[in-house]
Structures are given as C-alpha cells and as structure tokens.
Amino acid sequence: TRITNHLPTAELQALDAAHHMHPFTHAAGLAQKGARVILRGEGCWLTDSEGHRILDGMAGLWCVNAGYGREELAQAAAAQMRELPFYNTFFQTTHVPAIALAAKLAELAPGNLNHVFFAGSGSEANDTNIRLVRQFWAAQGKPDKQVIISRRNAYHGSTMGGASLGGMAAMHAQGGLPIPGIVHVGQPHWWAEGGEMTPEAFGIARARELEAAIADLGEDRVAAFIAEPVQGAGGVIVPPASYWPEVQRICDAHDILLIADEVITGFGRTGNWFGSQTMGLRPDIMTIAKGLSSGYQPIGGSILSDRVAEVIGGIEFNHGYTYSGHPVAAAVALANLRILEDEDLPGRVGRITGPYLARAWAGLADHPLVGAAETCGLMGALQLTPDKAARARFAAPEGTAGLRARERCFANDLVMRHVGDRMIIAPPLVISEDEVDMLVARAR
Ligand code: PLP
C-alpha cells in the first residue's frame, strides 16, 4: 500500500514504530502508545490524523516564527527549484540566493556583523564556530588560544561538536563527550541555583565564574565564550539583568571572542531581531538557524564581525558543507525574512504580543503548583514546585511532574514542552492576543 494521509492512524503509527527512529526518544515506550500523526498546519494551529486542532505553543521546535501555511514560501521554494535547485559555493562559484541572503543578514544583524558562513542547521553552524574561533587565533600567531568556555545546561546542538559545547549531562553521558578543549561554567538559573542570593548578586556571581575560569586557564589559552542570550532547551532561563553586562565586560577585558547562539533567540523571538539586542550584547559571532527560514527549509549559519571575517578571510578556511548556502533554502529564508520585516513581527513581539503574554503569563503565578512564571518576548517558562516559598523540587526522578503536565496539555490540544519540571512555550510570532488567552487558559 501507498502510505498517505488517508491511512488509518493506527496503521500509520504501526509503520512509524516499525521503521522510523525518532530523535531524543525512547522508541519502545513510544511504540506502546503510538506517535501523534500531524498532517497540516495553519497559523499557530496543527491538525492531527484524528482531526484534532492543536495550538502549537512551541512553533514546531522554536522555529516556525512566521506561522504555518505561508503560500509565499512555497512559491519561493518552487520557483528556485525550477531555476537552480542546487549548486555549491565551494570552488569559486556563487549564486544569487546565497548572495542576497548574506547581504540581507548583514543589513539586519547589529553592529559590524556583516559576513555569513552558511550551514544546514544550528548544530552544523556551531561546529563551524569551533573551528572558526580556533583558526581566528592560530592565524594571528596564538595557536594556544583554543579553549572554548560554555555553560552547564546550555544547548548548542546534537553533533559531536555541538553536544560537546552544550552542557547537557545526558548528552555528555552518551558518546564519550565532550571533545577536548571545552570547559563549562555555571548557568544564571536563579530559581534553581541562586540559594539565598538576590537574583542580581547571583547574576554577577555566575558571570564571575567565567572570569575565574579564564584566570585558571590563562587568558592566552581561551578562544571564546559561547552562550544563548536566553537559554532555550535548558528551560527558558531568563538571566538576571546583572548577568550579561558583566559577561560582556569580562570578554572585552580578556580579549575573548563572544559567540551568541541565536538559534532560538534570533529573528524576533525576544522582541528584537536578535536576542543580543534585547540583552545589550556585542557578539563577535552569532549562530543562526530555525527562525531564519521559519523552519520551512533546513538552514543555519554563523554571522561574523568584520574583525573575525578579516582574519579568517586571510587564510584558506578548510571547512564547509555540501548544503552551505543551499539555493532553495536561501531563497525560502530570504522570502521568510521579507515576511518578518513586512509584518514587523519582531516589533509586534516587542510592543504588543510579548508584553501581552508577559501579563497573562504572570497571572499563572498564583497557581498552587507554579513557583515562577517568566517570559522574554514570546518565550515563557513555568517552574513547577510542590512548595513555592521553599523553591522546592518534586521528589526524584526530576521531570515526572513536568511530563504529566505536558501529557495533560497535549491531550487538551496544547503543545507545551517540559524540561524537567519546567514547562516552556515559544509560540509562532503571529500568535494573536485571543490565541495567547487560549494558550494561557489551556496551560492553567
Ligand atoms: N543552538 C541552540 C541554542 C538551539 O536551541 C539548537 C536547537 O534547538 C541548536 C543550536 C541546534 O540546532 P539544530 O537542531 O538546527 O542543529
């Protein structure tokens, strides 16, 4: 039989279980209950094979910023496939979609971030960054300046390089990670780790861990610090206001490159084009993916400052991917950026839907199980706790309460994710105020 939308759900699920290995999934457990089959999407809504309409509070995987069902993106893909479905940019050739997208990103990115190295995903882009920052110093006669400092509970991708940069214990446990030359410091997660300190004092303390690590290693051995402006997969952890200015000061003082991983925070999510703008950072490199194409095509990249690009441009940089600057992905990304710009979705998040969500979300803080309700633009987190005043955790294993809450939401046709006992959202940027109300009501 041909496998189409019209097969009964149970048959699709059985075939899925028999042949399809899902990422980050316990396959045998999933096979028992069957994966939910998603057929189509429109705006913020998904339809499954049983005809349920599901409110997608996660924009897919934090990526469908422009919302589902954008006909102009389908048109852009089809037109580019007809014109030139593929060509590489390795051997002294280029093509118009890659040129146009790179130029557009140089215009949108803040400061002197003017040069783009394309990849197929966020993980690949971070692998690029590992090699890039090490080469940046080696090319200037500093071959020992190699160590990259990252943070515990960071997420920078799933390749060996990306997972090594990341600070997820479960990923390090599988595969003998991390690769050498990566050091982790603490995250600015006040609720979980701040103890008796005020959030502001804790933010400074966590930034100073970076400075201590630099002192420990010696400044002439540290190439870069990488971080998400707001941790996403770690549980939407909005840092105390004191944190980022101190980190920026430390990077400047010790001549350490700052890599802002904007894979989630880029393209409007925090109410500006980039999370670096929201947090007041001046990164030397930005990692981008996800919202770059609103997930309509797989594409990522690294945006480099003039200073970094000048040094890297002075050597032959032995790195790249078959799909670096893929013409169809680039054409779709460009059309997507036009939508974000024409509809001023970053500005709408900053002025309208972000503040609206912040107010509605804060209303959940009176729920007996909610210890903290935080947002930044259109990212949000609810910390579940059995005892708010004590900032207590549920009994081990961590995440049992979060998983139950997530399953309850999903059964009520709301996609919300859980990271341990933290419930998180990142809806499409096209979400309306009525839909925000619906999301918050279902979450409650
Ligand atoms: N960096 C961050 C901050 C991410 O959130 C992700 C994915 O969630 C990645 C990198 C990896 O991107 P990809 O899954 O496209 O490889």
TrEMBL record:
<keyword id="KW-0808">Transferase</keyword>
<keyword id="KW-0663">Pyridoxal phosphate</keyword>
<dbReference type="InterPro" id="IPR015424">
    <property type="entry name" value="PyrdxlP-dep_Trfase"/>
</dbReference>
<dbReference type="InterPro" id="IPR015422">
    <property type="entry name" value="PyrdxlP-dep_Trfase_small"/>
</dbReference>
<dbReference type="GO" id="GO:0008483">
    <property type="term" value="F:transaminase activity"/>
</dbReference>
<dbReference type="InterPro" id="IPR015421">
    <property type="entry name" value="PyrdxlP-dep_Trfase_major"/>
</dbReference>
<dbReference type="InterPro" id="IPR049704">
    <property type="entry name" value="Aminotrans_3_PPA_site"/>
</dbReference>
<dbReference type="GO" id="GO:0030170">
    <property type="term" value="F:pyridoxal phosphate binding"/>
</dbReference>
<keyword id="KW-0032">Aminotransferase</keyword>
<dbReference type="InterPro" id="IPR005814">
    <property type="entry name" value="Aminotrans_3"/>
</dbReference>
<dbReference type="Pfam" id="PF00202">
    <property type="entry name" value="Aminotran_3"/>
</dbReference>
<comment type="similarity">
    <text>Belongs to the class-III pyridoxal-phosphate-dependent aminotransferase family.</text>
</comment>
<protein>
    <submittedName>
        <fullName>Aspartate aminotransferase family protein</fullName>
    </submittedName>
</protein>
